[in-house]
UniProtKB/TrEMBL annotation:
The chain crosses the membrane at residues 12-34, 40-61. It comes from the Bacteria. The keyword Magnesium does not apply. Keywords: Membrane, Transmembrane, Transmembrane helix. Residues 14-66 form the YiaAB two helix domain. This is YiaA/YiaB family inner membrane protein. Pfam families: YiaAB.
Amino acid sequence: MSDTPVKQQSTAAFYGQAVASFAVALGATAIGIFNLQADAWVRAFLGIAVLYLVTSAFTLAKVIRDRQEAGQIVNRVDQARLEKLLAEHDPLQKL
């Protein structure tokens, strides 16, 4: 059976870049909404919309990751079954 890892780990640099990028984007959006020349209710609405967008993006990323991991597990089980059948098969055995 192959020893292919199910979970691939990203590097610390990639993780740091992703966190920094998220922080910069969220901070810039918050500053832009705060400095917007509009009524307070408009800025509050935009702030709530940004928070909803962020939580929706996290949920979508989790769902996609979970679906991918489930597919990898199914593929590993199917591969193990195939390897077992091939290992038990004797082509020289009379039928």
